[in-house]
Amino acid sequence: MANRNTTVNPSFPFHKADELDSFLPYLLTRLTHIWSSELNAMLADQKLPTPKLRLLSSLSAHGELTVGELAALAVLEQSTASRTVDQLVDAGLADRSISETDQRKRTVVLTRKGEQKLSEIAPLINDFHARLVGSIDPDDLSKCVDVLNRILNAKKAEDTIGESG
Fold first, then answer.
1. E strands within the chain?
2. Do 47 and 90 form a contact (C-beta atoms < 8 A)?
3. What confidence tens digit (pLDDT) does each residue in 81-97 have?
4. pLDDT tens, 124-151?
5. Cα(33)–Cα(54) distance, rounded to whole angstroms?
6. pTM of the model as a whole
7. Confidence band (pLDDT; 50, 70, 90) for 103?
8. Dihedral in degrees, nearest 10, Cα atoms 23, 28, 33, 39
9. 134-142: long-range contacts (C-beta < 8 A, 24 or more apart)?
């Protein structure tokens, strides 16, 4: 639902501020920047920048993953994900192994130390998230998350069709 200060379907190039302010990719980029920069500042003493946090969070949520799967889930370039996994392994926060069924396949899992690190920083992240969305009606927030997931799933389906066609 658009308020009176937003344009429902802005068209690029924008000619008014409310058009830019209604453009979903712009809003998502701004929110992501706010989230990442503030979170990086909060976790600086933990030596856990957002790329490491996103990899650890992905491992926590999904379990054993390949570096390619991690890169996709953490929204990182494959080379960056690979270097970051190396750092996590060196720090004892993750383990990497070679698949028994496919010697070319390398998988990564969260270690006990990695789980402890996530538990240690969870209050900071949960509090920050609550401050970020705390003034939003829970039903509105749920609808927003649902719509974003539908957009993401539609894009995934489009990409799958494009790959097979």
1. 65-66, 94-98, 106-110
2. no
3. 999 999 999 999 999 99
4. 999 999 999 999 999 999 999 999 999 9
5. 14
6. 0.83
7. confident
8. 150
9. none
In this structure, what token pair is assigned to residue 11? 């068209």
Token digits of residue 164: 């097979």
Count other C-beta atoms under 10 Å from residue 140's C-beta: 11
| Mean pLDDT (whole number) for 38-48 | 91
> Average of pLDDT values for 14-30?
92
Specify the 3-state DSSP secondary structure of 66.
strand
Determine the Cα–Cα distance for residues 128 and 31; give it in Å rounded to an integer.
13
Give the C-alpha separation, 10 to 18, whole Å: 9
What SS3 state is found at 100? coil
- Count other C-beta atoms under 10 Å from residue 164's C-beta: 6
- The token duo for 122 is 């969870």
Taking a C-beta distance cutoff of 8 angstroms, is the pair 58, 65 a contact?
yes
Under a CB-based contact definition with an 8 Å cutoff, are residues 36 and 48 in contact?
no
- Within a 10 A sphere around the Cβ of 34, how many other Cβ atoms? 11
